[in-house]
Amino acid sequence: MRSTSLIFGAIAVLAACFGASLKSRSGDPANANYLQKQDAETPIDQKKLVVLEAVRAPQDLGERAMAHARTLVNLGPRHSGAVPTEGYSKQLDFITAELKRSGVNAVRDTWTDRRELVTFTNISAVIPGKRSERIVFSCHHDTKCAKGHKDTEHNFAFAGANDGASGVALLLALAPVLVQGKHDATIELLFFDGEESMDWDWNNAARALFGSKHFVEQHRDAELKSGAPKIAAMLLLDMVGRKDLHIQEELYSTARLRTLVFSAAHSCGHATHFFRGAEAASDDHRPFLDVGIPSIDLIDLKDNPHWHKPTDTIDNLSAVSLQIVADVVLTALPAIEREYLLDPR
Length: 345
Ligand SMILES: [Zn+2]
Fold this sequence. Notes:
- By secondary structure, the protein is an alpha/beta fold.
- It has a single domain, classed as Aminopeptidase (3-Layer(aba) Sandwich).
- Helix content is 35%, strand content 16%.
- The protein has eight helices and eight strands, in the order H-H-H-E-E-E-H-E-H-E-E-H-E-H-E-H.
- A six-stranded mixed β-sheet has the order 1-2-4-3-5-8, sandwiched between helices.
- The termini are far apart.
- The N terminus is likely disordered.
- The structure holds zinc ion.
- The site of zinc ion (ZN) has 6 residues, from loops.
């Protein structure tokens, strides 16, 4: 089995931890389990765009998101595990309280993973629309555990300002805007736990994406048993606040959603921050894709020098970047509704 271990070794070097760019493709051991159902696709034709009306987020949204991110980072490490960090449970309380302030009821789903014996909590908040079908806006709230690793380089004070806090902060800042928006779709905000890999390196998908996998399983059960509302589409915000913002074209994401998001970026005058580079990245959208839900990951991972580094700090985030992503998401939303709701007006 020498060749197998050589391949594994190469993957361990190339691939990263959870949320990482998984450059290997079908046939590689790293893809052997959960992630084999869908291969990465090719980039969209950036000349074939849809004309969309730009929707501007409220002027203070970026600043509000930035304030949330600052609060979260000040809580320290925010991950579960055998002994969850102090910041972990404080963050859950903060998310719940902020949603409540926006007039949205937060529901926690807590479970213990039987193999890892780790307890996780997802948070869901539903903003009713004219229709019961849902469009999911999501992020992960856990931060990478950067202590207790064999390699000393992987033990440091990790703030998780962009990788973790930025997505949570932006969803929290978007919540009141979505409440006031009176959209056709019911919007579900999802804050996933356990996105990050339990090991430092990407170790197959078996030890990562705990929250999104759990959610999709529960959702499918509910759909089958009680006819729970369908999820029409899913958007994931992960690492969306870097000063030098570059949201890559993530190639597992549904091509039509990529076209709509890039069209939205273009309509808002933000295209320079989107899709300059294209690369697949395994993330919380994959369990949704695996059950046929159109999904897109807005992620700034490719060539990001701060990813899983001590420099992923609040100083490297920017309110302007968070505002840009908010504009694009709000501009894309009506187009996504038109495209994916089963009975569009
Ligand atoms: Zn990460």
